[in-house]
Amino acid sequence: MLVKDPNSIPDKWGKRPSDRSIGELLSGGVVILDKPPGPTSHQATAWARDALKVDRVGHGGTLDPYVSGVLPITLGKAVRLTDVVLSSDKEYICLMRLHGDRPEKRIREVVSRFQGKIYQLPPVRSAVRRQLRIRTVRELEVLDIRGRDVLLRISCDAGTYARTLCVDIGDVLGCGANMVELRRTRSGRMTEARAASLQDLRDAYVFWQQNGRGEWLRSLILPKEALVEPLPKIVVKATAVDAICHGADLSVRGIHMLDEGIRKNALVAMMTARGELIALGRMAMSTDKVMASSQGKAVDTERVFMDAGHYPRMWRYSTDLEDLSGDPEFIYRGFPRPRARALTVHIRPSMSVHGSIREEDSGVRA
Q1: I want to staple 239 with a disulfide (CB 3.0 to 4.6 A). Which of 8, 10, 140, 314 is the partner?
Q2: Is the CB of residue 282 less than 8 Å from the CB of residue 24?
Q3: Residue 179 sits in the same domain as residue 138
Q4: What is the SS3 assignment for 265?
């Protein structure tokens, strides 16, 4: 990450996601469910809700009843992050069956043509409107060929239909083909290696409730921050965190670090130095412009996830008195305290925040 301001005060507040209690994880976490073939995604999600005794759940990406594999289940406050999972890329293991014999060399040559951008028309029985659309197949690997059965590994955009892909490959081969079996092995950065069965969830919850043994259940629930791992990130100064929790936008002065190469209008995750998710927002300027600017709005805040008061309201104080004196968006109330160089300000809802203070000058003490 690029360091915007190396002189930010140390983050002494908040709690690392790994230090949260099981109750906190249940109120804002994610479970990687290994969905079995048979039930719908909605039914599997309902069973997970009942097993964990939570009120609010969601799932990230519908799987057909006969498809198995990774189904992210969001809990509590993390339900508002479900759309981030839905838009993440996916990986599948697919068993395709040809309707006629073809040489192995010809099969591999045709399959390789479907890597990259392809046109797809969703199947008749699908959950979306049937219209031609473009999807990207990042990787398409032939794992094994046995007679007419072809085992494929597919890494693709969200919304890519594997059964349609099999039909299209069969059409090009001139013999026809259909999908026999499908398993999702990855959704975003969530892999089947960490997936848990419905029975595991039920047993782990019972062990925690009846025996006080929560290690197993804790290992099955990830903090909600796992859902934003694919997104570019901005580390916010501790002095600006509470203002964002109240809905304010993020100013350039409130940035401690940020990822390279973030484009304007990109969706970003605003994080604390301890790794906690504060909010999601849209970049008002690119990374290069942020690094070259000393003021201005950097991020438009869209969704806030951290509770107000989790961090102290240090955004009311700033040592940049000369810069503040010419800012029409600040309304002054009083004068700096003696020896404290502190200034109390009102922030309008539409304005952005800066959080640059020095501990020895502000009078703020942990």
Answers
A1: 314
A2: no
A3: yes
A4: coil
241 and 346 together in one domain: yes
- If asked whether residues 70 and 168 sit together in one domain, one would say no
Pairing of β 57-59 and β 68-76: antiparallel
Token pair 């990830």 in the structure block, residue: 222
Q: Given this model, what pLDDT does residue 127 score?
A: 60
Please report whether residue 4 resides in a domain: no
Q: Does residue 64 have an active-site annotation?
A: yes
- With contact defined as beta carbons under 8 Å apart, do 297 and 44 qualify? no
- Confidence label for 125 from pLDDT (cuts 50, 70 and 90): low
Q: Which helix (H) or strand (E) holds 207?
A: helix 198-211
Same-domain status, 156 and 284: no
Q: Which two tokens stand for residue 316?
A: 């009311």
Q: Domain tally for the chain?
A: 3
Percent of all residues in the chain with a pLDDT value above 90, rounded to a whole number: 65
Can you tell me the distance from the alpha carbon of 100 to that of 173, in angstroms, rounded to the nearest whole number? 9
Write the burial class of residue 147 (CB in 10 Å: 0-12 exposed, 13-18 middle, 19+ buried): exposed
Q: Tell me the average pLDDT across 230-258.
A: 92
Q: How far, in Å, CA of 135 to CA of 125, rounded? A: 19
The domain boundary, picked from 201, 226, 251, lies at: 226
Q: Say yes or no: 202 and 254 in one domain.
A: no
7 within some domain: no
pTM as predicted: 0.79
Average pLDDT on 123-128 reads 64
Q: What is the mean pLDDT of the chain?
A: 84
Sequence length of the chain is 366
Among 4-13, 56-65, 306-315, 333-342, whose mean pLDDT is lowest? 333-342
Say which CATH number the domain at 178 has: 3.30.70.3190
Domain that holds residue 138: 90-187
Identified catalytic residue from 5, 19, 50, 64:
64
**How many other C-beta atoms are found inside a 10 Å radius of the C-beta of residue 23?**
8
